[in-house]
Amino acid sequence: MEFVRTIWRLLGVPLKWALDLLGVDVGPWGWVHTAAKVAILFLCVVVVGSIVRAAVLGIWRAFRPKPLTTLDDVHALQQHRAAEEAGQRLDEPVAPREGAVALLRKQGRYGELGETYLAAARPREAAKWFLKAGDRKRAAQALAQAGRAARAARMMMRDGEYALAGAFYTADGAHRAAAKAYRLAGDLASAAHALSMAHRFREAMEAYQGYFNRTTDPLDRQLETARRCIALLEAPKVAAKAPADTLAALYLAVGKRYERANRPADAAKLYALAGVSPNSTKAP
Q1: Which residues make Cβ contacts (< 8 Å) with residue 115, sequence separation at least 6?
Q2: Which of 73, 97, 109, 245 is the most exposed place for a label (fewest CB within 10 A)?
Q3: What pTM was computed for the model?
């Protein structure tokens, strides 16, 4: 009761100040004091109650558990499955649903999460989740899609994936770095092409010679390499400055591949440029 009396007396303080400020003397009408105190008490209760309610709602909204799936997720999945069953293709990138993302994260399915972001045309975020899943190759591919091919190449060089690193360096236009990566991968054909793209023509011709001398690739791969080699040899800067013996060796090597591919006219032309007779050659 003493607490209530103290509150009641305190309520009279602002009332007295207000009456003194207005110069009003209520005199013997004590009921006015009582009514005013009750009104002030009511206002205080309303204000404090509103503040407490707002604070409680804010805390609840901040910490309440979010649903892992929503009705929109279910509808989107149903539409996607229906399209797949009908043999349709969804060409538009689909934004990942918040509920589906939360579910994949909760279950630790980071690889699937990366694929989800990749399908939504968000490769940088996809790369982050592929890395978390431990799939560095997929992460590098996503980084390359995001325009970070040089970073992807460096990742693959550290992992010893030299062929992939070479492809990423090529996509980034770093042809000399690509040639180094391809050499480490044992892919002399690609290294030679990368060197020619880097205008390192003498080194490119040496790489082509090494390839043709040692290759056991299928004939179609050899023919593709031969086509690139001839394109290099026919470039004016190369034809004018290349050593004659190097040119002859490469013409002869390419001619043998054409002969094996049943292209006698092309082979004869290259044999003539190499300064040898077709009858004196043997296909490797």
Answers
A1: 126
A2: 245
A3: 0.60
